[in-house]
Amino acid sequence: MGTVWAEPYKIKMVEPIRITSVEERHAAIREAGYNTFLLRSDDVYIDLLTDSGTSAMSDRQWAGLMLGDESYAGSRSYYHLEEAMRGVYGYEELVPTHQGRGAEHLLSQILIEPGDTVPGNMYFTTTRFHQEYAGGRFADVIVDSAHDPAALDPFKGNVDLTKLQALIDEVGADRIPYLSLETNVNMAGGQPVSMANLQATYELCRQHGILVMLDATRALENAWFIKQREDGYADRSVAEILREICSYSDGATVSSKKDNLVNIGGFLALRDPELARQARALLVAFEGLHTYGGMSGRDMEALARGIEEMVETDDHIRARVGQVEYLGNKLLEAGIPIVQPIGGHGVFLDARAMLSHLPQDQFPAQALAAEIYVESGVRGMERGVVSAGRDPVTGDHHYPELELVRLTIPRRVYTQAHMDVVVEAVRQVHTNRDAVRGLRFTHEPESLRFFQARFEPIE
Ligand code: P61
User: Fold this and answer.
1) C-alpha count within 13 angstroms, C-beta hemisphere, residue 261
2) What pTM was computed for the model?
């Protein structure tokens, strides 16, 4: 069974999806301002916009919805969630939030003073937003290979300790409240951090009195890659590896809409009770009482069950990453340039390589995502200059080296045949790539612009 990744479940309920005509899709994308975030889901065939909140729950999770305790205070479902979080992640203090960015908001507000610098292994959009909103500045300390789609390093999510030390020397440890350490780095293409790097980073930060806060949103996927790629972990369970990952940190923010297999939810986890007290003081103002945060009782019950289920055996994560690798390998065989190694939650197309005739300020990845949608009804997401936004000081675009379209795979939702359709769609667009035109803004929101921006093709 070693290399088999077949799903460790069978299907009990199905949801119909509809394929539209190319004419309908032309009209839909025009209506959506060439932004796949603005499409209606009814106009989408295979939805690879995100793996966030789009996973399929198990029968046990659905049963948990019925058993959720909706008490305003002291809900039984909260205590179940607390027990599951402590058991699986190993942190003592649970601060429940409506989703990941709720936790990022609280963490940024309690720890960041105006003028502080927050280093991180590549930015994430909402994470950096909250750091800047609290008056901080993000500084990228990821290894250089993370910015190179073709670099084959097994751990492209690693922190570059030389960059981190140089930053500490430059701004002083007292202006760095914490290091924001993302597991399985989303914007780098779902790339893992090694255990050795987590340990060394934690050690360096400790020497300087700097906290380490994980973004453990996709820590399970990271644990799987450690098991596959790092010496000494092949015989450990992902549950054990995940616990060890978290041991090299002082706390974590989690969007439970990913690894945790629920449609909504998240949390901030901490070790220090005093920090937890500060977070809960804000929680009750911004999210809800400390025993539900932003979630209903049934949300918490489904989440507790999702956390337990994701690590019950290694078979779930083997199949999850196995499906992503299946899609990635098929695209590689078809000669499509993608980020390598293949990531944990999706396949990232290298739009810069594919549409080399378009300069970056004509938004090649945005144009490519729109084109794939029109060709096939498959919806992906831009992860390039549009997502990177503008520098808050200079007002210029950030020009990231990675100009990507993310084809993100929801967990337990699509089949191998759906993946084959996606390969065909991308192959078709690749063949006709020279005809793809660039885009320009017709509406540019001030912050997190990629969500609601509108574009038109350049003639
Ligand atoms: C996603 F286009 N991710 O990947 P929330 N940390 C990390 C995330 O991946 C993450 C959050 C925190 C999404 C949704 C999304 O620019 C975008 O539960 C590593 O979504 O609040 C979310 O967690 C935030 C899509 C978010 C985006 C921001 O699709």
Assistant:
1) 27
2) 0.97
Residue 258 annotated in active site = yes
What are the CA-CA distances from residue 15 to residues 114, 122, 272, 306 (Å)? Answer: 48, 36, 44, 21
Atom 12, ligand 1: which residue's CA is nearest? Answer: 100
Tell me the torsion sign for CA atoms 349, 350, 355, 358. positive
Q: What is the pLDDT of residues 247-259, one digit of tens each?
A: 999 999 999 999 9
CB distance 201 to ligand 1 below 6 Å = no
Residue 152 pLDDT exceeds 80: yes
Q: What is the pLDDT of residues 295-304, one digit of tens each?
A: 999 999 999 9
The answer to whether residue 125 is catalytic is yes
H helices, E strands: number in the chain: 16, 14
* Inter-helix orientation angle 364-376/416-431, to 10°: 120
Rounded CA separation 35/24 (Å): 16
Residue of 52, 124, 217, 407 to mutate, ligand 1, most atoms within 8 A of C-beta? 52
Any atom of ligand 1 within 6 Å of the Cβ of 186: yes
Backbone angles phi, psi at 211, to 5 degrees: -75, 155
Report in angstroms the alpha-carbon separations of 313 from 70, 285, 317, 355: 30, 38, 8, 42
Contacts of 153 (CB under 8 A, 6+ apart): 143, 145, 341
d(CA 102, CA 105): 5
The catalytic residue among 9, 30, 72, 399 is: 72
Name every residue whose Cβ is closer than 8 Å to that of residue 214 and which is 6 or more positions away in sequence.
181, 182, 183, 245, 246, 249, 251, 252, 253
* CA nearest to 403, candidates 372, 381, 379: 381
160 touches 122 (CB < 8 A): no
Looking from the CA of 24 toward its CB, the CA atoms found within 13 Å total 12
DSSP string, 364-413: HHHHHHHHHHHHHSEE-EEESHHHH-B-TTT-PBP--S--EEEEE--TT-
114 class by beta-carbon count within 10 Å (0-12 exposed, 13-18 middle, 19+ buried): exposed
The tokens of 294 are what? 């932003």
Return the pLDDT at 429: 98
Look at the block and give the residue holding tokens 């977070």. 279
- Nearest in space to 193 (alpha carbons), one of 120, 284, 264: 120
Atom of ligand 1 nearest to the CA of 387: 16
Q: Is the pLDDT of residue 1 over 60?
A: no
Catalytic, 101? Answer no
451 is catalytic: no
- E strands along 87-168, which residues? 93-97, 117-120, 137-140
Residue 382 CB contacts under 8 Å (≥ 6 apart), including other chains: 36, 363, 365, 366, 369, 404, 405, 406, 450
Q: Kindly give the interhelix angle for 195-207 and 238-247, rounded to the nearest 10 degrees.
A: 20
With beta carbons less than 8 A apart as the criterion, state whether 53 and 283 touch. Answer: no
